[in-house]
Design a protein that fits this description.
There is one protein chain. It is built from 14 helices and eleven strands. It is α/β, with parallel strands linked by helices. The chain has a nine-stranded mixed β-sheet with strand order 1-2-3-11-4-10-9-8-7, with helices on both faces. It has a two-stranded antiparallel ribbon with strand order 5-6. This is Protein tyrosine phosphatase receptor type N. One of its GO terms (biological process) is insulin secretion involved in cellular response to glucose stimulus.
């Protein structure tokens, strides 16, 4: 709590009020870092007030004794003597030198008090400005500005060390250093994170929880390690997945002329049977299409996820309509707005304050940088037609490049735990999107679905079959072999963490 400015001005002595009021009027009060500085200033002023009034009272008592001795006028013991013609001392009163000394002491105390307070104000404002400048630099490096251009994103990539790790691009070779030594990753000794910006402190805050027994955990872990060590087996499994054809596989609605412009990438569109259908009567274009697919885990009546592309500038209102109609409370964003100078997703939320998208008013309530790998935003969503309101949370993962995979699984697993902690107890689908809604989106959904099944006590886990189940509902989910191998590594590491947390 920061004391209001009028209260400070009333409590401060008159010598410091004009300067303080002018300084705090010129400098924005919001940049003062904490209320402790203001409270300390208040105490300091009160202390000097006490000294000043004690000195005045002492002087008043002395002068009253002088008046009683010299039969002069009576002075108040609490107030300084009024301006009266100076009279010579007749030897019975206080000497003139003592009066001059008291006045000099009063002036010196006042000057010292004002100087101390002025110095503290200068130091506090300097610290506040430095902190404000540091926060702006940090936000710029994370690409949180109005548009987050390519230069900003390159600075963030350099700071997070991704340029030095040599991540594989597109269909390039796998960086085997990340997954070859599986046994060392799962050893009991503490391992340094490959990234200089790992979220190990947050990792420890969210312990792994599961109903899995020890024997099942060891069996699943051995299965994962065998896949990761046996590269031929992993390659054969991936080739089998690539040749898999979903049925039915019609995408005629998405490829129609009226809907073609609503797709970010025409190669990655939803199936007709699993696409999300909007209410056409409230849609600004009077259509029901959006490039999004429902992903069912086990109950067809209750989709677990909605996989969608990053909104385009002209589909932002469609995105918020889908959020509203699906009852979504959690959004998982797996891409930066701009990567390597190429726009991956349009900003679909206000940079600050509120914005209106058709009939949906979106208010940015808070934006919290949890760590260098992800941040969390809170929104207040209002339907201006019905005046209904809702709150929802967006989890934005920053450490997954468009071409490649993260340098470590730990930040993503910690990110997933934070998402699930927020989502716990809800029955609405989680909206997951990257740029095209297939590669990073599919990998995250695959990891989350497998780990959720394990947490429920399922004893048989087939990741390849789970991926086929997901691809039955949206084409192209998990686009590269590197992403599939990364999913296996993430599941294995989480199983290892669960086993360590179980009582032996």
């Amino acid at each position: 709590y920061t004391p209001p400015l009028p209260l400070l001005c009333v409590c401060l002595p008159s010598q410091g009020v004009p300067a303080l009021y002018l300084l705090m009027d010129v400098v924005d009060v919001d940049v003062i870092p904490s209320s402790s500085a203001c409270f300390f200033l208040l105490l300091l002023y009160l202390y000097f007030n006490t000294l000043l009034f004690s000195d005045m009272r002492l002087k008043g008592i002395i002068m009253s004794r002088v008046s009683q001795t010299s039969d002069g006028p009576f002075f108040s013991p609490y107030l300084p003597p009024p301006c009266v013609p100076r009279q010579r001392s007749d030897g019975r009163g206080l000497p003139q030198a003592t009066r001059v000394q008291d006045s000099s002491r009063l002036v010196m105390l006042t000057l010292v008090g004002v100087a101390c307070v002025g110095g503290i104000l200068v130091v506090s404002l300097t610290i506040a400005c430095l902190r404000h400048h540091a926060r702006q630099l940090a936000a710029g490096k994370l690409g949180l500005g109005p548009e987050g251009g390519s230069d900003t994103h390159f600075e963030y990539q350099s700071s997070s060390g991704r340029q030095d790790t040599g991540t594989a691009a597109g269909g390039g070779g796998t960086d085997t250093s990340r997954v070859s030594s599986v046994s060392s990753q799962f050893s009991d000794a503490p391992q340094p994170s490959p990234s200089s910006h790992s979220s190990t402190p947050s990792w420890c805050e969210e312990p792994a929880q599961s109903n899995m027994d020890i024997s099942t955990g060891h069996m699943i872990l051995a299965y994962m390690e065998d896949h990761l060590k046996n590269k031929d087996r992993l390659l054969r499994e991936w080739e089998a997945l690539c040749s898999y054809q979903a049925e039915p596989s019609s995408v005629s609605v998405a490829q129609s002329d009226v809907n073609h412009k609503k797709n970010r990438n025409p190669e990655f569109v939803p199936y007709d049977h699993s696409r999300v259908k909007l209410k056409a009567e409230v849609n600004p274009s009077r259509g029901d299409y959006i490039n999004a697919s429902t992903i069912i885990e086990h109950d067809p009546r209750m989709p677990a996820y909605i996989a969608t592309q990053g909104p385009l500038s002209h589909t932002i209102s469609d995105f918020w309509q889908m959020v509203w109609e699906s009852g979504c409370t959690v959004i998982v964003m797996m891409t930066a707005l701009v990567e390597d100078g190429e726009k991956q997703c349009d900003r679909y939320w206000p940079d600050e304050g509120s914005s209106l998208y058709h009939i949906y008013e979106v208010n940015l309530v808070s934006e919290h940088i949890w760590c260098n790998d992800f941040l969390v935003r809170s929104f207040y969503l209002k339907n201006v037609q019905t005046q209904e309101t809702r709150t929802l949370t967006q989890f934005h993962f920053l450490s997954w490049p468009a071409q490649g995979i993260p340098t470590s699984t730990r930040p993503l697993l910690d990110f997933r735990r934070k998402v699930n902690k927020c989502y716990r107890g809800r029955s609405c689908p989680i909206i997951v999107h990257c740029s095209d809604g297939t590669g990073r989106t599919g990998t995250y959904i695959l990891i989350d679905m497998v780990l959720n099944r394990m947490a429920k006590g399922v004893k048989e886990i087939d990741i390849a079959a789970t991926l086929e189940h997901i691809r039955d509902q949206r084409p192209g989910m998990v686009r590269t072999k590197d992403q599939f191998e990364f999913a296996l590594t993430a599941v294995a590491e989480e199983v290892n963490a669960i086993l360590k947390a179980l009582p032996q």
